[in-house]
Amino acid sequence: MAMTTLPPARIAHPETGEVADPRVEALVNDVIGRVADKWTMLILEVLAEHGEQRFTRLGGLVGGISQKMLTQTLRQMERDGLVVRTVHPVIPPRVEYRLTDLGFTLAEAFCGVWMWAEKNIDRIEAARAEFDGRKG
C-alpha cells in the first residue's frame, strides 16, 4: 500500500486570514522552535529582569544550565540579534551579555505567555490531574 504525503499546511496571517508570506512563515517557525526552548526563554527573562550580565553570573541566574548549553544558546541568540556580546580587553577577559531592542521586544511578547500560565495554572493542573486519574 503506497503512502501519500499531504503538502504541509500553510499558516494564515492572524489578522487578514490570507496565506502568509513563505519567508515570514519560515521565520516564525524558526523563531518559535528556537525561542520555545526553555534555555532561550530563561535567558531572555534573566536579562530582561537583571540587565547586562557577565557569562558566569548569567549562568548562575538561569540555574541548571551547563556552560556548553549557555554558550550555544547565547551564540544563537547573538546570531538572531537578540543579545549583544561585549568582550572587555582585560586579563582575564570579561564577557558580558545584554538584550538588544529586538531581544526586549521578544521578552515582552513572551511575558504574555507567563501571564497566561499564571492565570491558568489551576485549570491546567486540574486538567492534568483528571487526565492522569483516567489512565490507570
Task: Provide a brief overview of the structure.
With 136 residues, this protein is mainly alpha-helical.
The count of helical stretches stands at 5
Mean pLDDT across all amino acids: 86
Shape estimate: globular
What structural class do helix, strand and pairing data support? Answer: mainly alpha
Uncertain spans, ≥5 residues at pLDDT below 50?
none
Question: In this structure, how is the largest beta sheet organized?
Answer: 3 strands, antiparallel
| Distance between the amino and carboxyl termini | 36 Å
**How large is the radius of gyration?**
20 Å
Per DSSP E runs of 2 or more residues, the count of β-strands stands at 3
State the helical fraction: 55-70%
Order of helices and strands: HHEHHEEH
Percent range for β-strand residues: 5-15%
Structure, described:
- By secondary structure, the protein is mainly alpha-helical.
- 60% of the residues lie in helices and 10% in strands.
- It has helices at 22-35, 38-50, 55-62, 67-79, 101-134; strands spanning 53-54, 83-88, 94-99.
- A 3-stranded antiparallel β-sheet has the order 1-3-2.
- The chain is globular, with a radius of gyration of 20 Å.
- The model has no long low-confidence stretch (mean pLDDT 86).
What order do the helices and strands come in, and which of them pair?
Elements: H1 22-35, H2 38-50, E1 53-54, H3 55-62, H4 67-79, E2 83-88, E3 94-99, H5 101-134
Antiparallel strand pairs: 1-3, 2-3
Helix pairs in contact: 2-5
Question: What characteristics describe this protein?
Answer:
136 residues; mainly alpha; three-stranded antiparallel beta sheet; 60% helix; globular
